């Protein structure tokens, strides 16, 4: 989803060399030549090889190569990539740490990595998707809840607005109980059943359970990924055809394709307990999700300034929506979009460093 190679942080200025050149103006060319061969060299991995640099410049001048790499998880959706890229760029430029990011599904392997310290942080966890076994990592303290990210997510069933304009009953789940509704969304693969378009099967989804428990004549088919779902949505909307799909906010596609959330039975704590236990009893809507951050406890000792920064790190729904269209609609790289946000919002993120 994104380039996991951190930009190199090269040491390119040497105060002692500048002082020498100022004193020996008559020998500028010679001094410069000597300085180029002896001072401020960098290795191929971006670490300084200068052994004569002034040791009195405090920790702020410490090369990034002397600090541990901060390892992030990027989950397979756009907002996660943008969160991580914003954090990485600020940590590299302001705190001097190299960073890395790996793509990983939001599952128990991610929590295991946080627990054993091979992963330092994940910046977007949807609480409704946390299973009982994953919650155990928080309960025993082997994974730290770093607090709310700031964005509030909402997973649900979505259709383009014209579907409801043409068929008002389809604003609510009761409208999907009839064979006529199924026929409206049927495909060659689903036969008499309507197609419900899922996304990535690794996501925390309960649509098959909801369909079974509400006795709806629909069948879940997975696109395989977020981009594949958007491509299918774009094709259907362009043709004015109906589509019923798993989706969520905040995403650019909701406004771009004028998507409307279908009313499912209201979320209850009992239904949520069934979801966490995986007992197949989910028959309600997805809850609103105040998204959280998580970190390895080891990060507090490994890089206490990064740990404090991530505690302060915030991405609101509005922040995400200001970046998402450029990636999801215009096809820009998350690294470039995040860099623009960082450049335009120094007054916001500078407070995270305090």
Summarize the structure.
The protein has 16 helices and nine strands. It is α/β, with parallel strands linked by helices. The N terminus is likely disordered.
Topology record:
Blueprint: H1 15-23, H2 28-38, E1 70-74, H3 78-95, E2 99-103, H4 108-116, E3 121-125, H5 132-139, E4 144-160, H6 161-166, H7 179-185, E5 194-198, H8 207-213, E6 218-222, H9 226-239, E7 245-249, H10 252-256, E8 259-261, H11 269-277, E9 288-295, H12 299-302, H13 304-312, H14 317-328, H15 334-344, H16 346-349
Parallel strand pairs: 1-2, 1-3, 5-6
Antiparallel strand pairs: 3-9, 4-7, 4-8, 4-9
Which H/E pattern describes the elements?
HHEHEHEHEHHEHEHEHEHEHHHHH
What is the global morphology?
globular
Radius of gyration: 25 Å
Q: Kindly name the structural category.
A: alpha/beta
The CATH architecture category of the largest domain equals: 3-Layer(aba) Sandwich
Through-space gap between termini: 31 Å
Tell me the β content: 15-25%
CATH topology of the largest domain: D-Maltodextrin-Binding Protein, domain 2
* Main sheet attributes: strand count, strand direction, barrel closure: 7 strands, mixed
Number of individual domains: 3
Describe this protein's structure:
With 354 residues, the protein is of the alpha/beta class. It folds into three domains: 15-49, no CATH class; 67-152 and 288-353, D-Maltodextrin-Binding Protein, domain 2 (3-Layer(aba) Sandwich); 154-277, D-Maltodextrin-Binding Protein, domain 2 (3-Layer(aba) Sandwich), CATH 3.40.190.100. The protein has 16 helices and nine strands. Strand 5, helix 8 (207-213) and strand 6 form a beta-alpha-beta unit. Helix 3 (78-95) crosses helix 14 and helix 3 (78-95) crosses helix 15 (334-344). The radius of gyration is 25 Å and the shape is globular. The two termini are 31 Å apart.
